Amino acid sequence: MNRQAVSGSERPLPGDAEVAQQSSHSVAGIHAEHGRARYGDSDFGRGCLMALRLVERGVRMVQIYFGNGQPWDNHDDIQIHRRLASQADPAIAALLEDLKSRGLLAETVVIIGGEFGRTPSVEVSGLVPVQNGRDHNNHDYSLLLAGGGFKGGTTYGSTDDFGFKAVDKPVHAHDIHATVLHLLGLDHTRLTYRHSGRDFRLTDVEGRVIHDILARPPWPSAGYPLLKSAPACARCRSTPASACA
User: How far apart are CA 230 and CA 191, in angstroms?
Assistant: First the structure.
């Protein structure tokens, strides 16, 4: 997600035909400059390359899917993840490297993850003697966060010895949402509206900004640029105290 557009700096957005036409020329340039092979010859690799071009053109939100269907949902054999990772990792690394080399990573929030984690075991019937798959796990789930104000080279939290449940500094999905909104210049607590007798917002009625994974306050002055009346807390300088619970 590109923070520059959220902060109020507008750039003309290209039409689909214009992006497609310019992408054909940009691919040749990237091939000569950095090496197209780094992205890999896969749909996901081409998607990462297209994502780079869209961010270069000022598109505010880009989402890339891996594969058709759910290739990571391996209940039969978790070792399939090795093959999938060999396709995904080089493309992700190339995208991050090219964003950084163009000065775009600092203003672009990158979130890499799936829909849930995997258990360290698998449930099978008595008719199945051996199975190497894994089941769904909502107690242990990892994300990779980069750019846009996140602190690099940091591991936050850990699971138990079996990799089943987060035990050290567990983070809820609402906390991730609150932190991302914070980096985009929005106080999630002020996006609340009353409906049918209860409060609603993007983080439900929870969520906290995780300061320990942030490299720096996202905005140099006190308060959010889109919510200028919000008072700043002493710790973050740029975050209203209500969002730093």
Answer: 12
Q: How far apart are CA 198 and CA 232, in angstroms?
A: 27
The b-or-e profile of 161-194 (16+ CB within 10 A means b, else e) is eebeebeeeebeebbbbbbbbbbbbbbbbbeeee
Per-residue pLDDT for 220 more than 60?
no
Three-class SS of residue 172? Answer: coil
Count CA atoms within 13 Å of residue 188 on its CB side.
Answer: 25
pLDDT in tens, 174-204: 999 999 999 988 899 888 888 899 888 888 8
Q: Are 114 and 134 in contact (CB under 8 A)?
A: no
Q: Is 75 exposed, middle or buried (0-12, 13-18, 19+ CB in 10 A)?
A: middle
Concatenating the DSSP letter of every residue in 6-35 gives HTT---PPPPHHHHHHHHHHHHHHHHHHT-
For position 175, what pLDDT does the model report? 94
Q: Which of 9, 31, 15 is nearest to 98 (CA)?
A: 31
| Position 108, amino acid | T
